[in-house]
Amino acid sequence: MKLGIILQSNNPEHIWNTFRFGLTALKANHQVTIFLMSEGAELDTVADTEHFDISKKVAEYKELKGILSVCGTCLEIRGKEGAETCPVSTMADLLKMVEESDKVLVF
């Protein structure tokens, strides 16, 4: 199954659960794409906490070949030109992800 996930939050627990779910799906042999938008585009600036090892989850997600992209306009609004964690994308890329996904989830 192809899963598309839209992450719109910079809340550490929301991010952590998004990537935990993505990892679970990848380990079950599903294809997963996470698209960061709105506050989710701030992923690079959200630090790990005592309970949420975000950087470890993101690294593992990438190791398992999960696809990750970020809204370029959302970055621009935040004064950023690019993202260290993933390629910059567009609404056309998001539309393609939605069209090609069997299921789309929003966190």
Structural commentary:
- The chain has 107 residues and is an alpha/beta fold.
- The protein has one domain: 3-Layer(aba) Sandwich (Hypothetical Protein Ychn, Chain: A).
- 39% of the residues lie in helices and 21% in strands.
- It has helices at 12-27, 54-63, 72-77, 91-100; strands at residues 2-7, 31-36, 67-71, 88-89, 103-106.
- A 5-stranded parallel beta sheet has the order 4-3-2-1-5, with helices on both faces.
- Strand 3, helix 3 (72-77) and strand 4 (88-89) form a beta-alpha-beta unit.
- The longest helix is centred in the N-terminal third of the chain and has 16 residues, at 12-27.
- The radius of gyration is 13 Å and the shape is globular.
- The relative contact order is 0.26.
Structure described in brief:
This protein has 107 residues and is of the alpha/beta class. The protein is built from four helices and five strands. The chain has one domain: DsrEFH-like (Hypothetical Protein Ychn, Chain: A).
Topology:
Elements: E1 2-7, H1 12-27, E2 31-36, H2 54-63, E3 67-71, H3 72-77, E4 88-89, H4 91-100, E5 103-106
Helix pairs in contact: 1-2
Q: What is the H/E string?
A: EHEHEHEHE
CATH topology heading = Hypothetical Protein Ychn, Chain: A
Any idea what the CATH architecture is?
Answer: 3-Layer(aba) Sandwich
Total individual domains: 1
Tell me, what's the shape?
globular
- Largest beta-sheet details: 5 strands, parallel
The low-confidence runs, each spanning 5 or more residues with pLDDT under 50, are none
Beta strand %: 15-25%
Distance between the terminal alpha carbons, to the nearest Å? 19 Å
Mean model confidence by pLDDT: 96
